[in-house]
Amino acid sequence: MIGIDWGTSSLRAYRLAPDGTVRGRHEAAARGIMAIGLGGFAPALREAVGDWIADGEGCVLLCGMVGSRQGWVEAPYLPCPAGLADLAAATVRVPFDDPVRVRLIPGLLARDAGGVPEVMRGEETQVVGLLDAIDGGAEATLCLPGTHCKWVRVAGGRIAGFATHMTGEVFAALSAHTILARTMDAMAPPYPGAFDRGVARAKQRGGLLHHLFGVRALGLTGELADSEAASYFSGLLIGHEIAAALEAGVAPPIHLAGAEALVARYARALAAFGIPHRVHDPDAAARGLALIGGALHDRDW
Amino acid sequence: MIGIDWGTSSLRAYRLAPDGTVRGRHEAAARGIMAIGLGGFAPALREAVGDWIADGEGCVLLCGMVGSRQGWVEAPYLPCPAGLADLAAATVRVPFDDPVRVRLIPGLLARDAGGVPEVMRGEETQVVGLLDAIDGGAEATLCLPGTHCKWVRVAGGRIAGFATHMTGEVFAALSAHTILARTMDAMAPPYPGAFDRGVARAKQRGGLLHHLFGVRALGLTGELADSEAASYFSGLLIGHEIAAALEAGVAPPIHLAGAEALVARYARALAAFGIPHRVHDPDAAARGLALIGGALHDRDW
User: Fold this and answer.
1) Closest CA–CA distance from residue A51 to any residue of chain B (Å)
2) Contacting B residues, span 196-225, partner chain A, CB-CB under 8 Å
């Protein structure tokens, strides 16, 4: 079968063996759903994996923002708790060229302790792909860094709940569109020492809105070089995120998965908090697509 | 004398009687220092208050970002604690047309409990203008809302220290440059009920980076109208700021001064936290300029 992780800004397609082995991959960084116009999803799918379909693949399983209101077909959010079988049973049929079958995995909806809703699209499939590796039968916490970082609580092999932190998007917006931009060289290479200073600052009192101004003030007084400011700022935000997640009661070890460089930053920050963590396969989405696809019978397609 | 609060984005000029009474005022919203090119400060000053100078005023006192590196003449930051006499003694001469004398009040530098620097330019003059009203001989906490909100600790009639929160600028950057913009009508009128919901949310655990995503998720699930999102978001940020300030140990009552609509929001949020507060004269800068100018002898000019 073919599995596709189709998000806001990119499309990642996998040709999958029945045992989940990735036999081929196509990545189209510019074919995220925001780049696809009305009526453009079927052509984009043909363009991305037409060669594999011509070679005999007849089933395509999608996950990610492609199932949102801005996507191809809207798949209603499935409420938590939800696991592999629940997700497979809730997949949605997408009209496409006969005899090829296309289905879509829904996103998940949860509520945090304050009753405020939480949504994800795509990460549920990554989590399914990681369940074996994390011994998901027991309670476990996963952290999936990204533009919107997800902290996911797994219990009994199902996703029990999750919390989203807008850390990546806040970093991008504030480093480009506030006074911080004046004393921050966004193109500078990472400085681990400055990152660690930012993490340490996040442990102090005063709050994030106050600590942000410190990035500017340290630059003004010459105590933080422009070239180190982006690393310090990254450590400050990730440190605040981790401090808040710990306060909300996540249970270590933290299972990390995602883009390598970003996961390395979270691992470094967790270590600074003294929190044990494990880094997992960045291809979790491919494995989750294979597992959910494997749980569908022929008649379900 | 003439007093001018000359900030990043606007210029506010006051013609002051010896007792501090405001006899005239000019406001040039478009003549902040960011709008003034090299060599443009003296002409801008003549344009703003040339009529009062022609009418016999010979002394001009400036405060605000006009004393920064991007301003007219850079006045080094004065370290805290500092009061009226310290500020008057540290004013800096600015070259201008004889026989008119122009001087500039320096900004202040402090360090927070974590050793990180804090800077202000202009607010020190507002605080001096409020000292009588707040009984500044005792310990007191002032909160001056704005793009960069200042929480100022006064003791023994001097500014002992302060903390800056980037709340206003964070609101502007995140509401325009993140996914929050999609479900937020920034032009909608204020909704006090939505503001209160945001303040209440800030008291819950989870952290600001997590609560930000809730603004988006509440919109997606139809639990927060687009027209109410900006008010909710404002309450969320101001609530986080107040919670952090309280945790850092500010002592009530909180003395508020600044733009009326914004001060009203802070007053409402403080009330939701059960913190007593008092609202003061928004013309505090004019009074501070008069007091500091009055402390200068003729030979000092």
Assistant:
1) 35
2) 201, 204-214, 216-218, 220-221, 223
Please answer yes or no on whether A163 and B209 come within 8 Å at the CB atom: no
Token pair, residue A143, equals 């952290």
* A158: its two tokens: 């199902």
**Alpha carbon distance B104, B87 (integer Å):** 10
- Strand order of the sheet with strand A254-256? A82-83, A158-165, A149-155, A140-144, A254-256, A277-279
Place of tokens 């003294």: A274
Q: Enumerate residue ranges in chain B where pLDDT < 50.
A: none
Strand residues in A166-263 grouped as ranges (E): 254-256
Q: For A159-174, how does the pLDDT look when each residue is reduced to its tens digit (9 = 90+)?
A: 999 999 999 999 999 9
Q: Which amino acid is at A218?
A: L
B115 shares contact with chain A (CB less than 8 Å): no
Give A174's contacts in chain B (Cβ within 8 Å).
170, 173-174
β-sheet with B78-79: strand ranges across:
B78-79, B108-111, B117-120
Q: What is the pTM of this model?
A: 0.95
What's the Cα-to-Cα distance from A47 to each of A28, A43, A99, B112, rounded to whole Å?
10, 6, 17, 57
DSSP states of A206-220: S-HHHHHHHHHHHHH
Q: Report the C-alpha gap between A66 and B298 in whole angstroms.
A: 73
Strand-pairing partners, residue A42, are: none
Whether residue A137 has pLDDT greater than 80: no
